[in-house]
C-alpha cells in the first residue's frame, strides 16, 4: 500500500475517532459534506448500518438541502428492512429534486421489498420515457430485482441482459447477472451476452469473470481458466477471480497452476486458514510433504480448530508411511469434528498399519455407520476384515451393505471373501453374476484381494465373459 493510501486511511480513522468521541460525550459538532460521506462509507463497509444511518441523519440535519444524504439514508433504511421509513425519506428528497431518477429507483426498490411489486413495475414503466441508455439500464436493473423477488429467474436474466445491452458498463448489473444465470441455468446465453460485451470492451474484468463461470458450468474448463486469468490480469485486486481460477485448476488436477494462483493471492491479500490449507494440499498432491505440512501448520496458527487441516497433516504422514504421527493428527481432527466418516476411516487405516487392529475395527464400523450409502467405506472395512482374517464378519458386512443397493462392487466383494474362505464354487457363481451385471468392475476383486490376480481359474472365468 502506497503512502497516499496510508495517509488517507489514517485520516479516515482519525475522523471516525473524532466523530465517535463527540457523539459519546454529547458534544455538538459540524462536519463538511465530504466528511459525512466518508463516515457513511466507512460504517457501510464495516457492516455497521445502524451507525451509518445515524451519521446520515446528522448529515441531513446539517446539510438539509443536499439530496444525496436523503438518498443514502433511504438506501440504508431499505437495507435494514425499514421500507416505509425509506419511502418517507424519499418523499422529503423529492421536495428538493422532483425529477431525480434515483428517488424513483429507490422508491421502486422499497416497494419490491414491501411485496408491492406491481406498483414498483408501474412506477418504473412511467420513468422509461425520454431517458438516456444509462438511465434505462438502471431502471432495468431494479426491474430485474422485481422478477427475482417473484422467483421469475428467466425474466430476471433477460432483464439484466437488456440492462447490459443498454449500458455494458453497468457494474451492478454485471455483478447481479451471474446470480440470474445460476438461478435460470442460462449458461450458454450468458456466454453470448458476455462475449457481446467483451467485443465492445475487452477490459471488462467482470465480464471475463462471468464468462469464466459460464464456461466452467458447461465443462469448458480450459476456456474458463483463460477467462478467469483475463479477469485478474485486468484487475489485479479482484480476489474472487484468483480464487475461482485456483479452485478450478485444483479440480482439474493442475496443481502447479493452482499453486501459482494461490501464491499470488497470498502475496496480494490477507491470508486465511482456508487459503493456506489449499496451498498445503497442492504441495501434498505434488508429493512435497514437508512444504505441505509447513503451510498446514501456518493454517493451524490462524485457526487452531480447523479439523480439515489436522486431517490433511495426517494424510501427509500417511503418504510417507509415518503411521504413528498420522494417528495423532487424525485423532486431533476427530476431537474437533466427530461426524466425518473419512476421519474415522483414515484413523482406522493408520491403526491397521501399526497393528492395533482392535482399535481399527470399531473405527471402520463408525465410518460405515455415518455414511452407509457410500460404497467406499464398506469396501475399506471389508478389505480390513479380509486382511485380518475376519471372513465371517466380512460376509455379515456384505449382507448388510447389500441392503443399501450400492451396486455390483458389493457382489465382487462377496467373491473376494468367498475365495479367501475357500468356498470357490459359490464364489465363481457370484463372479459370473457380477460379470454379467458390470464386467469392468471386476478390478474391485483385486483391490480387495491382490493374490487373486495369480488365480488362473478365476482369471480364465473373467476372460470368458469379455465381450
Short summary:
The protein is mostly helical.
Structure description:
The chain has 467 residues and is mostly helical. It has a domain at 400-467. The protein is 77% helix and 0% strand. The chain has 27 helices and no strands. The chain is elongated, with a radius of gyration of 31 Å. The mean pLDDT is 95.
Q: Tell me the total number of β-strands.
A: 0
Strand percentage, roughly? under 5%
Tally of individual helices:
27
Compute the CA-based radius of gyration. 31 Å
Distance between the termini: 67 Å
Secondary-structure element sequence?
HHHHHHHHHHHHHHHHHHHHHHHHHHH
Report on the biggest sheet.
none
Query: Rough shape?
Result: elongated
Question: Any key phrases for this structure?
Answer:
elongated, mainly alpha, 467 residues, single chain
Amino acid at each position: 500500500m502506497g503512502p497516499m493510501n496510508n495517509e488517507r486511511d489514517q485520516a479516515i480513522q482519525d475522523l471516525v475517532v473524532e466523530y465517535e468521541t463527540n457523539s459519546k460525550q454529547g458534544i455538538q459538532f459540524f462536519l463538511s459534506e465530504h466528511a459525512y460521506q466518508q463516515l457513511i462509507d466507512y460504517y457501510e463497509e464495516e457492516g455497521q448500518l445502524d451507525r451509518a444511518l445515524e451519521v446520515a441523519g446528522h448529515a441531513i440535519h446539517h446539510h438539509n438541502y443536499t439530496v444525496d444524504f436523503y438518498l443514502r439514508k433511504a438506501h440504508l433504511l431499505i437495507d435494514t428492512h425499514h421500507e416505509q421509513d425509506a419511502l418517507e425519506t424519499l418523499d422529503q428528497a423529492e421536495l428538493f429534486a422532483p425529477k431525480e431518477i434515483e428517488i424513483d429507483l429507490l422508491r421502486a426498490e422499497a416497494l419490491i421489498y414491501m411485496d408491492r411489486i406491481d406498483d414498483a413495475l408501474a412506477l418504473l414503466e412511467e420513468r422509461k420515457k425520454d431517458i438516456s441508455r444509462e438511465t434505462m439500464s438502471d431502471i432495468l436493473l431494479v426491474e430485474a430485482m422485481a422478477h427475482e423477488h417473484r422467483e421469475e429467474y428467466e425474466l430476471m436474466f433477460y432483464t439484466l441482459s437488456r440492462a447490459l445491452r443498454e449500458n455494458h458498463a453497468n457494474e451492478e448489473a454485471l455483478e447481479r447477472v451471474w446470480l440470474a444465470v445460476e438461478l435460470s441455468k442460462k449458461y450458454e446465453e450468458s456466454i453470448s451476452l458476455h462475449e457481446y460485451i467483451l467485443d465492445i470492451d475487452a477490459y471488462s474484468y467482470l465480464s471475463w469473470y462471468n464468462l469464466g463461470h459460464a464456461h466452467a458450468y458447461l465443462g469448458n474448463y480450459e476456456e474458463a481458466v483463460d477467462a478467469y486469468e483475463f479477469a485478474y490480469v485486468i484487475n489485479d485486486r479482484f480476489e474472487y477471480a484468483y480464487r475461482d481460477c485456483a479452485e478450478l485448476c485444483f479440480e482439474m488436477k493442475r496443481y502447479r497452476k493452482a499453486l501459482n494462483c494461490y501464491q499470488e493471492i497470498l502475496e496480494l491479500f490477507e491470508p486465511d486458514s482456508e487459503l493456506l490449507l489449499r496451498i498445503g494440499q497442492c504441495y501434498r498432491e505434488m508429493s512435497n510433504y514437508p512444504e505441505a505440512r509447513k503451510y498446514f501448520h501456518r493454517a493451524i496458527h490462524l485457526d487452531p480448530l480447523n479439523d480439515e487441516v489436522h486431517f490433511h497433516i495426517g494424510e501427509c504422514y500417511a503418504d510417507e508411511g509415518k503411521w504413528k504421527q498420522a494417528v495423532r493428527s487424525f485423532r486431533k481432527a476427530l476431537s474437533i469434528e466427530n461426524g466425518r466418516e473419512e476421519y474415522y476411516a483414515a484413523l482406522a487405516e493408520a491403526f491397521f498399519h501399526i497393528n492395533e487392529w482392535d482399535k481399527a475395527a470399531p473405527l471402520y464400523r463408525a465410518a460405515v455407520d455415518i455414511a452407509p450409502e457410500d460404497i467406499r467405506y464398506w469396501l475399506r472395512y471389508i478389505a480390513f476384515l479380509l486382511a485380518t482374517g475376519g471372513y465371517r464378519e466380512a460376509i455379515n458386512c456384505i449382507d448388510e451393505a447389500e441392503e443399501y443397493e450400492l451396486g455390483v462392487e458389493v457382489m465382487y466383494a462377496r467373491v473376494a471373501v468367498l475365495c479367501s474362505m475357500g468356498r470357490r464354487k459359490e464364489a465363481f457363481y457370484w463372479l459370473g453374476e457380477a460379470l454379467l451385471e458390470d464386467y469392468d468392475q471386476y478390478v474391485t476383486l483385486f483391490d480387495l484381494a491382490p493374490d487373486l490376480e495369480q488365480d488362473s481359474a478365476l482369471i480364465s472365468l473373467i476372460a470368458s465373459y469379455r465381450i
